[in-house]
Write a structure and sequence with these properties.
This protein is an all-alpha fold. The longest helix is centred in the last third of the chain and has 38 residues. It is elongated.
Length: about 375
């Protein structure tokens, strides 16, 4: 039964061009090597554990001292007065409505304003410190920078970077180079580590979206390695890593309260996002996978799947750029990305709280949904 399911999942008719079998890829010419999925997975899983351990040491020995130098303190939040009734409701509803506030006021013999203040402080108590978000962003910034530099160094001397038709000549019988292997293993291990650390990192509004994103990324890396689409795969990964470097740098500047640097880096990120994901990716890489591969090797079943996923990804790029452009325009013409927007910390005074029980919660939701969440670390971008 297991062999039947495995044969169905890894059907040669689906994943490989016509007249090509998995056995053909297991017998490379002397002195050459073709990708073997089992080989990569055997290295990627232990390396993912190593990445998690390395991250712990990096955040403690590098990122945290940098945060102290920049005077980014952990900052212990104000603690609420313990109350079992309010805590029980908070676990199911962090923003009680007017009717609930009235009921709690009668049950506890508290003023509604006092209950509102308790919930506001309790929400702030769960919010991560700026130092924690700074350390997470510094880790991602370091990885993206190092892996991008490595990718450029490998691809710069690769003929398929300058002539994308080289991605399909003699496909899938293309030898595996050490640079390709290292790049793929590093990326796969990193995304496996993100899958695990997402459950312990700062909880963000897009938790489920990013969980699906990480799974999809791992799936694409795995299948492109398995059917030896490494040349196009390395180009795709490199293009996506490029703009992420500037986004994480902008977040670091934002946490350190260097507003002008933050604004400048975000504009640079916007430009790099536009060039890499709306120009280079569709007109260079997707064009090659869609049209040049059709001309050289012809379509096969997995070809339709891979191109469909790339087109869906390009649609997301367009949507993301629209949202990013709005922030960049604000940075250019108003001179600030996030300073004049609502902070992700609720710090309004008691006098700011109206008698309407839902007003404070509505304000909180506006904070969370504001586009500055990108820089405050409330959402990811990939």
């Amino acid at each position: 039964m297991t062999s039947f399911i495995s044969a169905w999942i890894w059907s040669e008719r689906f994943w490989l061009p016509e007249n090509v079998s998995w056995a053909d890829l297991e017998r490379p010419p002397a002195g050459l090597e073709y990708p073997r999925l089992q080989h990569m997975l055997c290295h990627a899983f232990p390396l993912a554990v190593g990445v998690l351990v390395l991250r712990l040491f990096f955040e403690r020995l590098v990122a945290r001292p940098c945060a102290h130098i920049l005077q980014i303190q952990a900052g212990a939040p104000r603690r609420v007065q313990p109350n079992a009734v309010l805590e029980r409701l908070y676990q199911s509803n962090t923003c009680p409505d007017t009717r609930q506030l009235e009921g709690l006021s009668k049950q506890l013999d508290w003023e509604e304003r006092k209950i509102q203040r308790w919930f506001r402080i309790r929400r702030n108590q769960d919010r991560p410190s700026t130092q924690k978000k700074f350390c997470e962003s510094m880790w991602r910034f370091t990885f993206y920078l190092v892996i991008f530099i490595y990718a450029i160094g490998h691809l710069w001397v690769s003929p398929w970077m300058w002539d994308t038709r080289q991605c399909w000549h003699n496909y899938p019988f293309q030898p595996l180079s050490p640079g390709q292997y290292n790049y793929y293993v590093a990326e796969l291990a990193f995304y496996w580590s993100l899958m695990v650390s997402q459950f312990t990192d700062v909880k963000r509004k897009d938790f489920m979206i990013m969980l699906v994103h990480h799974l999809a990324t791992i799936f694409l890396i795995t299948i492109s390695y398995a059917n030896n689409m490494l040349r196009a795969g390395t180009l795709v990964m490199c293009v996506h890593d490029a703009s992420d470097v500037f986004l994480e740098a902008a977040k670091l500047a934002n946490y350190a309260k260097y507003q002008r640097l933050c604004d400048s880096l975000f504009v640079v990120f916007s430009i790099s996002f536009f060039l890499t994901r709306l120009i280079i990716f569709p007109f260079w890489i997707v064009y090659s996978v869609l049209f040049e591969s059709w001309q050289i090797i012809g379509p096969y079943q997995a070809w339709w799947l891979i191109n469909g996923l790339l087109l869906v990804l390009q649609t997301l790029h367009i949507i993301w750029f629209y949202l990013i452009a709005r922030i960049a325009v604000k940075a250019i013409f108003k001179g600030k990305v996030s300073k004049d927007d609502r902070s992700d910390i609720e710090s309004s005074t008691d006098e700011d709280i109206s008698s309407n029980g839902s007003k404070n919660c509505q304000t909180s939701k506006l904070r969370d949904s504001s586009h500055t969440g990108v820089l405050n670390g409330d959402t990811h971008d990939h």
